[in-house]
Recover the amino acids of this structure.
């Protein structure tokens, strides 16, 4: 029998996970069973992916940068990458604002529901607010200071410090370009081999993806809050999801216009990374797979993908910024506030910056939302309103974050002449055969 393509296997795993959890909730011992015996496998799967992130960034970025002929090539690509990332983020926030202003989901929330939500989730919202407070208390240049680590081993020991590892890797790569070629050769060869090993490890981990997502989704279902709360927030959630779908349409269009690659080519290539982003809610955990898909299936040369993607996973969060815009205006509407045009422009600026500052881990977008709210003068207590549906929306926005990184890497690849006409792997799942 022909083996099912990976993205179908992952989808099947997700669907079975949900069905299994729904069945288990009929038994009193069911949820406990999933917590104790199923969820750990999901955690192991995510841990294995995260385990690869730091070595992958080090190996591939050092290799990518040192493969460039000179520093001017690097700065050209760097400039283009950042510009495209910021542009797509601004488009995303604008889409979010347009949708939420058009539908006005906040107006449908009754006073009673609002009270109930604030009561149920006030505590959790407060802890997010405190996290955000810590970030706000630092000086204006703290974000810059945070990029430069004082110890590379220390920086590599925390996946939250991805930007620091990226800084080190680019710096190291520049050093490698500048030393005589003969001396650089063995170092490059080492990182080449190292990179190959890491990619193989990803292949092996991905063999377990369908089981991993089964466990993750099953655990999510038994931990989810009641369906009533979902219903109250349905309009808001629909606005976020509609905005996110529009944004995926924008990527497809951009890829089509700028690289002449068809929508089905793009979606086929990126879909396993999307599904994984959906299941893990973490761009960082998905990065290894995003890189592999983009290089081997979408035809972007390593020199570009190894530079553009790790940076994208850390700073380009279009889904997050779109969600922040919708959430901010929704909360304002629910509290009966009318936001003027200038305030909404302010939301574009703060949501763009807040999404850049959000870590690529589950729930990070909500912490940074506090900053958007504060800037726009919207009550922070409103966080409690949207808490119940944050996780499913996190899954959706992470999918968009990862899709955006893939699309931009293709566009940058095309612009600098590093997009192959044919992908390395023509048969989507050749590299996942054991
Ligand atoms: N979970 C998202 C990501 O990893 C960040 C967020 O919470 O919006 O991309």
């Amino acid at each position: 029998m022909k083996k099912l393509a990976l993205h179908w296997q992952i989808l099947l795993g997700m669907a079975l996970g949900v069905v299994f959890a729904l069945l288990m909730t009929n038994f009193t011992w069911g949820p406990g069973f999933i917590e104790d015996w199923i969820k750990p496998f999901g955690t192991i799967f995510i841990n294995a992916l995260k385990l690869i992130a730091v070595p992958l960034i080090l190996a591939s970025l050092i290799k990518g940068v040192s493969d460039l002929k000179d520093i001017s090539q690097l700065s050209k690509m760097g400039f283009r990458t950042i510009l495209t990332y910021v542009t797509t983020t601004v488009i995303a926030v604008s889409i979010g604002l347009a949708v939420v202003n058009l539908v006005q989901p906040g107006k449908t929330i009754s006073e009673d529901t609002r009270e109930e939500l604030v009561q149920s989730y006030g505590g959790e919202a407060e802890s997010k607010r405190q996290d955000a407070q810590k970030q706000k208390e630092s000086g204006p240049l703290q974000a810059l200071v945070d990029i430069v680590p004082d110890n590379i081993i220390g920086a590599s020991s925390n996946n939250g410090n991805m930007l620091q590892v990226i800084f080190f890797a680019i710096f190291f790569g520049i050093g490698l370009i500048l030393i005589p070629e003969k001396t650089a050769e063995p170092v490059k060869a080492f990182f080449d081999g190292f990179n190959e090993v890491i990619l193989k490890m990803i292949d092996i981990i991905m063999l377990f993806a369908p089981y991993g997502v089964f466990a993750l989704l099953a655990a999510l279902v038994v931990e989810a809050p009641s369906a009533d709360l979902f219903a109250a927030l349905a309009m808001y959630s629909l606005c976020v999801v509609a905005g996110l779908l529009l944004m995926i349409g924008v990527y497809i269009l951009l890829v089509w216009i700028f690289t002449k690659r068809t929508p089905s080519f793009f979606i086929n290539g990126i879909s396993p990374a999307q599904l994984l982003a959906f299941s893990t809610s973490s761009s960082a955990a998905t990065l290894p797979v995003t890189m592999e898909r983009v290089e081997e299936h979408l035809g972007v040369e390593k020199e570009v993908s190894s530079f553009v993607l790790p940076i994208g996973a850390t700073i380009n969060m279009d889904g997050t910024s779109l969600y922040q815009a919708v959430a901010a205006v929704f909360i304002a509407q629910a509290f009966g506030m009318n936001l003027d045009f200038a305030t909404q422009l302010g939301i574009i600026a703060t949501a763009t910056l807040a999404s850049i500052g959000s870590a690529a881990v589950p729930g990070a977008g909500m912490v940074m939302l506090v900053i958007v709210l504060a800037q726009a003068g919207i009550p922070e207590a409103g966080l409690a309103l949207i808490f119940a549906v944050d996780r499913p929306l996190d899954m959706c926005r992470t999918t968009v974050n990862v899709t955006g990184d893939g699309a931009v890497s293709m566009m940058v690849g095309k612009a600098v002449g590093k997009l192959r006409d044919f992908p390395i792997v023509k048969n989507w799942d050749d590299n996942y055969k054991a």
